[in-house]
Amino acid sequence: MTIEYRPPRMGEEPRLRSLFTEAFGDECFTSLFFSKGYSPDRCLAAFDGTLLAALHWFDCRLDGKTAAYIYGIAAFKRCRGRGIGSGLIRAALEELNKRDYEAIFLVPAEEHLFAYYERFGFRAVSTIREERTAPGAPLPLRELTVQEYAQTRRRFLPEHALLQEGPCLELYSGYAKFYATKRAVAAVSADMVWELLGDVSDAPGILAALGLDSVAVRTPGEGRPFAMGLGVDGPIYLGLALD
Fold this sequence. Notes:
- It is a single chain.
- The protein is an alpha+beta fold.
- The protein is 28% helix and 33% strand.
- Strands 1, 2, 3, 4, 5, 6, 9 and 14 form an 8-stranded mixed beta sheet that branches. A 6-stranded mixed beta sheet has the order 7-13-12-11-10-8.
């Protein structure tokens, strides 16, 4: 079997959508991704005459470097266990190197996948702190647009942080809303604070202002291994994982 690794062509998006839904099990999220996050210029797929597997990435910046955040790696169930996914990842790394990306990142969906991605040269480069937090006294909140969040977020990002803007942030806006207090910014959904930057002691007040019960809150800091990277030295912050 000869496998071709290439970007998708016109007319192949419906099969990519089918693959995305089969792999991630949510037609609503598939529609959201392909309306806000998808581009054939940021996708590589495996074919043997028909679609076998695909992955996507978002353009980011890290300390002035061009970076890629790989996302949505998936193969049809009938194709798994045949090395197609591994071949796709290797082909993607070659393609990204040809396009002069200087750093490449991904966030393993499960703990055992850290060892899998180490085969391709990735290593753990960031941690995330995630703690369940209860509401407290409500704080004044201002809801932000995507553009406002991108601009305000930059003021609160820690050193060596991955700048995730454009389509990545637009996709996030499909299932989270963005807020600011005087001392912090947050990306919040009904059951999760996906990112809180700035004064983390504002978390209980944000939850109370939004009428949320106890939820998990993600903040920068020492915690569980989170992102893996290539082409980067030392710890970085990658906060907006699409998990």
